[in-house]
Amino acid sequence: MDEEFTKLPEGLPQPIDDGASDHLLGMTIPRMVLSSTKDTALDLSKINSRYKVLYFFPMIAIPGENVPSSEWNDIPGARGCTPQNISMGEHNYDLQKYDAMQVGVSTQPIGELTKVSYLRNFPQPLVSDTNLEFQESLNIPTFEFEDKTMYKRLTLIIHELKIVKVFYPIFPPDKHVFQILEWLENNS
């Protein structure tokens, strides 16, 4: 597996809080069924865990296939999807101790997400929101790159369908799981 994508390079620009997620705390997630890497479809509103951890990320590279151009590293918060997903997967058991199920959400096609999930052996499901249903229903922040709309990196912790915690912006993405675990420890 190509190590280039598993580590964050030095000197990445840090994202700033632009207020694009300020409205999310307290909102209710809608009933939504999306294509998943673990099932043919996943109904996010019916996940049977005390907490749902929905982490949004722009896109995960498949070595040699969908590697973005060099400008990708210049976008604050864009780089780091592979390290973030690896870190989330490595701490899947730790999240389960708090009865928290994590789900990665991206606008990438399900075929790409399934391929990289298989190659990297991610235990957590990744879902494809190519139709931007989350953006439409909750106004999740996005950005444009190479004629594609992508989610900005953020995490929602949901309890009984209500958003009880919003992490935004997220940096560095490979260490973010520790913020989630600390919040769960202090709020469970």
Structural description of this entry:
The structure is a single chain. By secondary structure, this protein is an alpha+beta fold. The chain has a single domain (22-187), classed as Glutaredoxin. Helix content is 23%, strand content 22%. It has helices spanning 81-90, 92-96, 110-120, 133-138, 176-187; strands at residues 33-36, 42-43, 51-56, 100-106, 126-128, 142-145, 148-151, 154-159, 162-167. Strand 6 and strand 7 (148-151) form a beta hairpin.
Question: Outline of this structure?
Answer:
The chain is 23% helix and 22% strand. It is an alpha+beta fold and 188 residues long. It is globular and about 40 Å long.
Distance between the termini: 37 Å
If you average the pLDDT, what whole number results? 92
How is the CATH topology named?
Glutaredoxin
Q: CATH H-level name... which superfamily? A: Glutaredoxin
| Gyration radius over CA | 15 Å
Sum up the structure in keywords.
188 residues, two-stranded antiparallel ribbon, 23% helix, Glutaredoxin, seven-stranded mixed sheet, 5 helices, globular, 9 strands, alpha+beta
Which helices and strands appear, and what pairs or packs with what?
Layout (H helix, E strand, L loop, with lengths): L32 E4 L5 E2 L7 E6 L24 H10 L1 H5 L3 E7 L3 H11 L5 E3 L4 H6 L3 E4 L2 E4 L2 E6 L2 E6 L8 H12 L1
